[in-house]
Amino acid sequence: MRTIPVYPVRPIPPAGMAQSLAAPLLKGRGTAWSLAHRFTRDDRQPCDDGWGNLDQAVDAQALPPATRVLEEQVKTILAGNDSPDIGFDLSINPYRGCEHGCIYCYARPTHSYLNLSPGLDFETRIIAKVNAAQRLREAFSARSYSPMLLNIGSATDAYQPAERKLGITRQVIEVCSEFRHPFSLITKSSGVVRDIDLIAPMAAQNLAAVYVSITTLDPALARVMEPRAASPERRLQTIRKLAAAGIPVGVSVSPVIPFLNEPELERILAAAADAGASSAFSIVIRLPWEVNPLFQQWLQQHFPERAARVMARIREMRGGGDNSSRFGERMTGSGIWAQLLRQRFHKAADKLGLRRARVELDLTQFRSARREAAVASAQASLF
Fold first, then answer.
1. 179 DSSP assignment
2. Using 50, 70 and 90 to split pLDDT, how confident is the model at 294?
3. Residue limits of the Radical SAM core domain (predicted)?
4. What is the pTM of this model?
5. Tens digits of per-residue pLDDT, 19-54?
6. In 3D, which of 99, 312, 305 has the Cα closest to residue 189?
7. Measuring CA to CA, which residue among 98, 132, 321 is closest to residue 213?
8. Alpha helices, DSSP H only, in the chain?
């Protein structure tokens, strides 16, 4: 893929909000708004030139946008993490963008770096890192590599629809199995069940754990909030199948959105525990960069009677702003309402016997190139 020039960051203009509210809803999409990203230098507005072009453009927009999967050959696949708020050191995202279309997704702004919209493009222009397994094998084979806590799918769903055909995530897990490198993964998809044959043997040796994200038990709310993700009941079935296979399963009740899914917090935890989850964590909604106007537009379209109340409570948990990126509070929020949410979560998790700590995986089993060479050398010296 071509390199996209990076321009100085500027505030996201609110000018498109009124126009986006008038846009029709798109079935199966989180947003119909092709929001301009923060690096865009040009501001375009439709106009009628008398030749009917504007009418043609409106007709074209009425058609459901198809998903396009674009293949990319990446140079590296491991991304480092320096945030103390996240419980892993490295991450692998086999795809960029996500067809699930979750309106609240904090990864939407990553499409800006591709000169694509964090709005509709994020859901319809999916970048597939087709050589991910090759790059991972190269990284693990390097003599300088030391095993670290690895997560799959932190900024995309590794089991979104494109995975059914491409199998990139499965190839990545096969490499982890080959090198006995531990990993965790998080998903909203039931597609992870396909790979139980790979994950279960690793889990039996404390090398794998899976976290399933359940944001609501209400299928109607899930349909508008996460339009192409698995239904809540399907996710509970996924937890049951993973747990039955002996795989440690955690539930992520994230993000918690005040007055939308927040009243369900305890019920979600109870349903997940009943399905076989053994641990849990929760994150308060984050609205970084372009996610903020997209989420507010979505609120106005689907929950106009609650929109002002939801945003007011979010600001109370974000120090008066729409978002806070400060380490130590960006995942949990701050203030009295954030504290009450944490107390509710801790009390419910403790009552249900759900661990609040992540599963500790074993890094010592990694088959490093250095170790294999040392073993081979020692064996050769015997002869």
1. H
2. very high
3. 82-322
4. 0.87
5. 455 556 888 888 878 777 666 665 555 555 555 554
6. 99
7. 98
8. 17-22, 53-62, 120-124, 132-141, 162-166, 168-179, 196-204, 219-225, 232-244, 265-275, 291-302, 307-316, 336-352, 369-381
Q: What is the DSSP string of 240-291?
A: HHHHHTT--EEEEEEEE-TTTTGGGHHHHHHHHHHHT--EEEEEE----TTH
Q: How far apart (Å, rounded) are the C-alpha atoms in residues 362 and 250?
A: 17
Nearest 10 degrees: CA dihedral of 176, 358, 351, 248? 10
Q: Which of 329, 354, 99 is nearest to 252 (CA)?
A: 354
Q: Is 134 helix (H, G, I), strand (E, B) or coil?
A: helix
Neighbouring C-alpha atoms within 13 Å toward the C-beta of 94:
27
Q: Is 159 helix (H, G, I), strand (E, B) or coil?
A: coil
| pLDDT given for residue 60 in this prediction | 47
H helical segments located in 51-102: 53-62
How many other CB atoms are there within 10 angstroms of residue 247's CB atom? 23
CB contact set of 225 (below 8 Å; sequence gap of 6+): 30, 102, 103, 104, 215, 216, 260, 261
| Biggest alpha carbon–alpha carbon distance for the chain | 88
Model confidence over 324-338: pLDDT tens digits? 989 889 899 999 999
**Which secondary structure element, helix H or strand E, spans residue 31, and what is its range?**
none
Four-point Cα dihedral 215, 221, 223, 224, nearest 10: -110
Using a 10 angstrom Cβ sphere, with 0-12 exposed, 13-18 middle and 19 or more buried, the burial of residue 24 is exposed
Helices 265-275/232-244 angle, 10° precision: 40
Residue spans per domain, the chain? 27-40+59-356
Fold that domain 27-40+59-356 belongs to in CATH: pyruvate-formate lyase- activating enzyme (3.80.30)
